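Supplementary Text 2. Reproducibility record for the structural model of the 124-residue chain.

All settings were left at their defaults, and a single model was retained for analysis rather than an ensemble. We include the record here because the model underlies the residue-level annotations in Supplementary Table 4.
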Amino acid sequence: VQLQASGGGLVQAGGSLRLTCTASGGTFSTYTMAWFRQAPGKEREFVAGLRANGGSTHYADSVKGRFAVSRDKVKNLGYLQMSSLKTEDTAVYYCAAGRPILSAIATDSLYYYWGQGTKVTVSS
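Retained model, structure tokens:
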């Protein structure tokens, strides 16, 4: 599976962006999809995940209520809708696909496939 993240850009605090993860070359719909981000000088962190089985969604505490993860299984697309953006959301965002167990959905080492990242900059 090849993944490509897009949709990043510059936005003012309080604004919104929608990131898209375009998948090709495999059965993307059978994988758990997740979004991670890495801010300058910081480690990569989990943002949101959407399980293939059951479709449950999971979010980092820092984005709960502001971000929403979804997917279009027919089009092989994944999305991260980001609202009420804060300056601390500034980072490079990556989409990933894998089959982690539910308790490990935030563990980046369990994801097999990664997109190249898209940069999100939130200005004050």
